[in-house]
What we know:
The chain is of the alpha+beta class and 169 residues long.
Amino acid sequence: MKKNSITAFNSGEYVVYPTHGVGKVTNIAKQTIAGSELELLVVNFDKDKMTLRVPVAKLDKVGIRKISDETTMKEALSILKGKPRVKKVMWSRRAQEYENKINSGNPIAVAEVIRDLHRSENLAEQSYSERQIYEHALERLASEVAVFDNSSVEDANKKLLDIVSSRNL
Length: 169
């Protein structure tokens, strides 16, 4: 375990936990659990009213990362402008792939899900499960874009929808 990973995150900083999205580091604490003293990164997810305590030794394994840099964010936003790529495989298999992309925590993969599942007003309706996955991906990317742009999640959501809608013109 690299000792410098604890200094990689500071209290008050936003981080991305792959399976939960954007959270705020509230503390870096030492706690004794089962007779062992562990150093824990305490991450709070306001939207879900959840607090996670992740052992510093496991940070790399769980995939906690800082908010994306400008290059990654630009690439993710440019993917939204692309043509949807929908494979001709069963929905259950595609749904699993989409969920895996969302839970990867990679903004580029999440943008691909949004691009592929976005429907303009004049196209056919989405199924309930398609809509759920689409909204989950949109919420996940919007929360990271909001922190990146220092804006509200609503503004970030509108920005993403504007970008993905513009490709249909």
